[in-house]
Amino acid sequence: MGKYDFIDRALEGLREQGLYNTIRTIESSVGAWVIVDGKRVLNMCSNNYLGFANDERLCRAAKDAIDRYGVGPGAVRSIAGTMTLHLELERKIAHFKGAEAALSVQSGLNTNLATIPLLMGAEDVIFTDELNHASIIDGCRLTKAKRVIFPHRDVHGLRALLEENRAVAKKLIITDGVFSMDGDLAPLPEIVEAAEEHGAMVMVDDAHGEGVVGSHGRGIVDHFGLHGRVDVEAGTMSKAFGVVGGYVAGSAKIVEYLRQQARPFLFSSAATPPDVAACIAAIDILEETDEPVRRLWENATFFKTEMRLLGFDTGKSETPITPVMLGEAKTAWAFSKRLFEEEVFATAIAFPTVPRGKARIRVMLSAAHSQKDLGFALEKFAKVGKELGVIGA
After folding, report:
1. Which of 23, 44, 208, 351 could join 178 via S-S bond, C-beta 3.0 to 4.6 A?
2. What is the tally of structural domains in the chain?
3. Are residues 222 and 299 in the same domain?
4. What is the model's pTM?
5. Which pLDDT tens digit goes with each residue over 219-276?
6. β 359-364/321-327 pair status
7. Using CB atoms within 10 A of its CB, is residue 9 exposed (0-12), middle (13-18) or buried (19+)?
8. Looking at the annotation, which residues are catalytic?
């Protein structure tokens, strides 16, 4: 018996269940249309909500930063890696989010790995939505705190669990702002009220909310008018902002604690100058205009309405995330493959990313899409949907 036989069995099991993911390769910049595996296709599965990933203003900022600062800082932030660009980005994020302060880290995943273990210890309790992102789950696993999972968006259930743990001194409620697979919003006002009644802190991961909801895309806290009542906003610069990196925004006290003790900040090299400069450019654009956000929502409203008229089940999304519910993984992968043959790039999402039996094509609308692009996509979805018996002929 070989020492890697367990891997062979695991991979074969994925193939048998229709869960084996053949990862495609992009050979161009990321826009409405991309070259994938040598083929020009309409991009319907990128997180590039505002079309910033290949925006000339961000590209120019990145090039200018290379000329001035080079390609990398050569150190972690806490030793010799903090550059003026990092501090400028943090000031811009804090102002944009309406927070006292902000800390930038290397990725959205790292925001949760940095923050949750630092805030919560062995005597504490974390309350986490059952559909929270994997990075939140991993951040919770890194603590010795008790973890209590509450039913998805169920504030009544959350209140009951808070009451059961009333005697615990330190409590933290964590939720996604926008849930990435279904596109629904956290009931943040009710969560905040419950937290205030029970003396709990609130942390929201706004990865799919920033650039999408709120004034000029300022996120879910702004969307609900909860400034000053949410302790921690965490997020990423890799989706609507089109670049890479993560941030934590909140009180100056929490941010300074993270700056002193957060492990990803202390033990992983700082983000590169071109990335940071491009992030700054993205925020500057949104401070100036909400036009990309408005265009995103116009596209989302049109596409979702037309998909429902065609007979597709698009779930309960409240955002531009549009799940096309297909059920079984094999159906979703077959649908994705046929769409690609029809020049539409839309990847299947299956277990373990979503529960078994809830496989889907997750369509991600973008401000970069034109009405012609969306018409093309609708035509191809209708064709493939009829072929596979997902919708009526």
Report:
1. 208
2. 2
3. no
4. 0.94
5. 999 999 999 999 999 999 999 999 999 999 999 999 999 999 999 999 999 999 999 9
6. antiparallel
7. exposed
8. 180, 208, 239
